[in-house]
From TrEMBL:
CDD domains: AAA (cd00009), PAS (cd00130)
GO BP field: regulation of DNA-templated transcription
Entry annotated with the keyword Transmembrane: no
Annotated ranges, domain PAS: 4-51
SMART domains associated with the record: AAA (SM00382), PAS (SM00091)
Regions annotated as coiled coil: 367-418
Protein name: HTH-type transcriptional regulatory protein TyrR
Residue span(s) of domain PAC: 62-122
Domain Sigma-54 factor interaction: 150-379
The species this protein was found in: Aneurinibacillus danicus
GO molecular function, one term: ATP binding
One Pfam family this sequence matches: PAS
Keyword ATP-binding found: yes
Keywords: Aromatic hydrocarbons catabolism, ATP-binding, Coiled coil, Nucleotide-binding
Length: 454
């Protein structure tokens, strides 16, 4: 019996885990050396003392033994002993009458485990920070590659490109605003190519160029026999063709009202219904749209749906006209001239006087007008150097005494009227004039009506 008692004591003291034994009243009966090693609480502070007393003195945060006495089953809690966190498991020991006689508490130091856990969390946070920084760097590097050939020296265009970089990361709808020829399609391409959808298709739709009665079937497709002349096999629409990519709806202001309602449903439900069909088809497409018109004014006139406007206008990007970004005029002109030199094997250059002259011009057709004009000049000018006298327009003379009385809007209208009248007189038709000015025929007709040109 003595030998067995000695063996028990040896096992009790050899345990790596701390062991504390309390009786049914919560008084300390036994404690091993490991308990003192782990908690720093001496044997004399525990033996013969009640656990409630230890709680009051703050030696232990709460007693697992009392929880076992109350629940009459093993319990495990995280306990603080002298400021050190331990995992404490209390187990009841029953007598022959089935009553709890002792509670044996086993404790393990989890401070080291918590330290390692904290280090792991910090390491994960640091790793994620590095991953985010690498992604940010790659995004900037990707944007830099994508922006090659996009001229942005002016602060106005630099702000636009910064916004492009932000919106490319998300799938929100973007509304590109700006006059004809400012480069809305170029910006749409940039957004797509910098996005997570870059590997998918970019489908471009000019809502003004497709007859209204065909636009619905072009966008949403049609089932076989949907209308006279329809393909007998049916046809998927442009939304289906853009699956996994981006669809760019240019001149969205020209979309008829009845079709606007169907587009709104696509944006809300992310599904389309083909013409002549009944089944809805889910689509995974990002929508970019653009217009040179004021959609707000169209909403007020009742020609554009207010709910669709709000849905499209989640992220508006206003692209300034060329006359408001004069710092870009010279770099753009040089870029286009170099492009024509390479395209046609030429060696043309501008006379230095050309640049201030171009900066004073209003450019009603914006970048498209400039590119078309420089292509024309590079081909038709005989000498190597392009001079002011080679340009097909002259700047309007302004009476300086009236300058202060003239608003910017009136001045620009004067320049536009002068430019349009000169080109109409030379080219006779609105189609040819629009092509030379670098704007669409419908835009030119609207300007003629607005300016009252006969």
């Amino acid at each position: 019996m003595v030998k067995l008692q000695t063996l028990f004591t040896s096992i009790f003291q050899s345990s790596y885990d701390g062991i504390y034994v309390a009786d049914a009243n919560g008084n300390g009966v036994m404690v091993n050396e490991a308990y003192t090693r782990i908690t720093g609480v001496q044997k004399e502070e525990l033996i013969g003392r009640n656990l409630q007393e230890l709680e009051r003195e703050g030696i232990i945060s709460e007693s697992v033994s009392f929880k076992v006495l109350k629940s009459k089953k093993p319990m495990t809690i995280v306990q603080t002993v002298r400021g050190k966190e331990v995992l404490a498991t209390g187990s009841p020991v029953y007598n022959e009458q089935g009553e709890i006689e002792y509670i044996v508490t086993n404790i393990r130091d989890i401070s080291e485990l918590n330290r390692l856990k904290l280090e792991l969390q910090q390491s994960k946070a640091l790793t994620q920070k590095f991953i985010n920084e690498i992604k940010e760097f790659k995004m900037k590097e990707k944007m830099q590659l994508l922006l090659d050939g996009v001229i942005a020296h002016s602060k106005e265009m630099i702000q636009v490109l910064h916004l492009v970089q932000k919106v490319a990361r998300v799938d929100s709808t973007v509304l590109l605003l700006g006059e004809s020829g400012v480069g809305k399609e170029v910006i749409a391409k940039l957004i797509h190519r910098a996005s997570n959808r870059a590997q998918g298709p970019l489908i471009k739709v000019n809502c003004a160029a497709i007859p209204q009665h065909l636009l619905e079937s072009e966008l949403f497709g049609y089932e076989k026999g949907a209308f006279t002349g329809a393909d007998s096999r049916g046809k998927p629409g442009l939304f289906e063709q853009a699956e996994g990519g981006t669809i760019f709806l240019d001149e969205i202001g020209d979309m008829p009202l009845d079709l606007q309602a169907k587009l709104l449903r696509v944006l809300q439900e992310l599904e389309i219904t083909r013409v002549g069909g009944r089944k809805s088809v889910k689509v995974n497409v990002r929508v970019l749209s653009a217009t040179h018109q004021s959609l707000e004014a169209m909403v007020e006139r009742g020609t554009f749906r207010q709910d669709l406007y709000y849905r499209l206008n989640i992220i508006p990007i206003k692209i300034p006209p060329l006359r408001e970004r004069k710092d870009d005029i010279m770099p753009l002109a040089c870029f286009f001239l170099n492009k024509m030199n390479e395209k046609y094997g030429l060696d043309k250059r501008f006379h230095p006087d050309v640049f201030p002259f171009m900066e004073q011009y209003a450019w009603p057709g914006n970048i498209r007008e400039m590119e078309n004009l420089i292509e024309r000049l590079s081909i038709t000018v005989d000498q190597r150097e392009i001079k002011i006298s080679d340009f097909p327009f002259t700047l309007p003379k302004i009476d300086e005494s009236n300058t202060k009385k003239t608003t910017l809007k009136e001045l620009l209208e004067h320049v536009e009227r002068n430019m349009i009248e000169q080109n109409l007189a030379e080219h006779k038709t609105t189609r040819k004039t629009a092509k030379v000015l670098g704007i669409s025929q419908s835009s030119l007709v609207k300007k003629i009506q607005k300016l009252g040109i006969k």
